[in-house]
Amino acid sequence: MPRGEVICDRMDCFSFPYVTKKLPATTLERIYFVGYTISTLGMGSYSPQGSVWQIATAIASVNGFFLVTLAIAYLLPVVSAATEQRQLAVYISSLGGTADEILVRAWNGKDFGQFDQHLIALTPMLAQQGERHLTYPILHYFHSIERSRSIKLSLVALDEALTILDYGIKPSHQPDPAALGAARRASAAYLKTLKSAYLKPASENPPLPSLERLRRQGIPTVSDRQFWDATKHVTKRRRLLLALIHNDGWVWDAIGSSQTTNRATPLDDQTTIDKVILH
Q1: Which residues pair with 14 in a beta bridge?
Q2: Is 159 helix (H, G, I), strand (E, B) or coil?
Q3: Are 209 and 96 in contact (CB under 8 A)?
Q4: Which of 43, 137, 221, 224 lies at a CB distance of 3.0 to 4.6 Å from 196, suitable for a disulfide?
Q5: Which UniProt keywords apply (predicted)?
Q6: Taking the model in full, what pTM does it have?
Q7: 198 — pLDDT class (breaks 50, 70, 90)
Q8: Has residue 85 got a pLDDT over 50?
Q9: Exposure b/e, 112-127, CB count within 10 A at least 16 = b
Q10: 3-state DSSP assignment of residue 2
Q11: Is residue 244 one of the residues assigned to a domain?
Q12: Helices in the chain by DSSP H: which ranges?
């Protein structure tokens, strides 16, 4: 590739390839030419010599156009989807950091109050997350080091809470069946997307959530034996939840009973934020 030469007249100054001299380009000039071409700005002040280099330049231009299109059509939506993913995680964490805390916070002494309204709001968000993960499988590999913003921990905690509501709470005190069933199916639809991340159910069963704390809060529950019998058919589902947590670098205790851990504590009013306590 020859160097460009600057020719000036009385009107203006123009830069164009001085191909008649056919001077070879230096290393820096070659880098400039490649960068200018890949960025789809053209070829700058240089011209490729020979059909082979002309074809190579055309291929480089197409690759540059592809990269720019990819950044706009794929990378930006992925970033947006990752942000929505964290928003959903915080929403669920605000309801409670663990399955038992979600239910204890929703209990008003007689029933679960307006908790079914949260389930109605969460259902389309869960369904959207499932579809986003099918469209952008790379979302499975986004990891949050803050537990309250981890979508994996939030989804598992919510799914465990739905399991308790469905099989551990007496039917007369369960939330609206339509809201509970829809949220549970939406969560199952998300779990099915784990195939795109090549995740398989864990080889061991995670421990069943304890109903003891719920009983101490006056929440009517079935017996432990009834709960165990009723949840036998969701063993594979819960093994998949365990695999999801392990794949994200966590352990099951991260969403265990709030008696031992509570990942939503940073969201409470008593939490110090920049040394200022919220009241």
Answers
A1: 7
A2: helix
A3: no
A4: 137
A5: Membrane, Transmembrane, Transmembrane helix
A6: 0.74
A7: confident
A8: yes
A9: beebbebbbebbebbb
A10: coil
A11: yes
A12: 27-38, 51-70, 76-95, 99-106, 115-135, 151-167, 177-192, 212-216, 224-230, 235-247
The CB density around residue 203, as the number of other CB atoms within 10 Å, is 8
Sequence length of the chain is: 279
Lowest mean pLDDT among 13-27, 90-104, 195-209, 253-267: 13-27
Residue 28 lies in a domain: no
Residue 7 lies in a domain: no
* β-strand partners of 7: 14
**Scanning the structure block, which residue is given the tokens 């969403």?**
255
pLDDT computed for residue 42 by the predictor:
59
Contacts of residue 162, Cβ cutoff 8 Å, sequence gap at least 6: 180, 183, 184, 187
User: What sign does the dihedral 46-52-55-56 (CA atoms) show?
Assistant: negative
The pLDDT of residue 69: 73
Confidence grade of residue 18 (pLDDT, cut at 50, 70, 90): very low
Q: How many domains does the chain have?
A: 1
The angle formed by the CA atoms of residues 188, 174 and 129, to the nearest 5 degrees, is 25
Are 243 and 199 a contacting pair, CB within 8 Å? Answer: yes
Residue 104 forms part of a structural domain: yes
Q: Can you give the pLDDT at residue 160?
A: 95
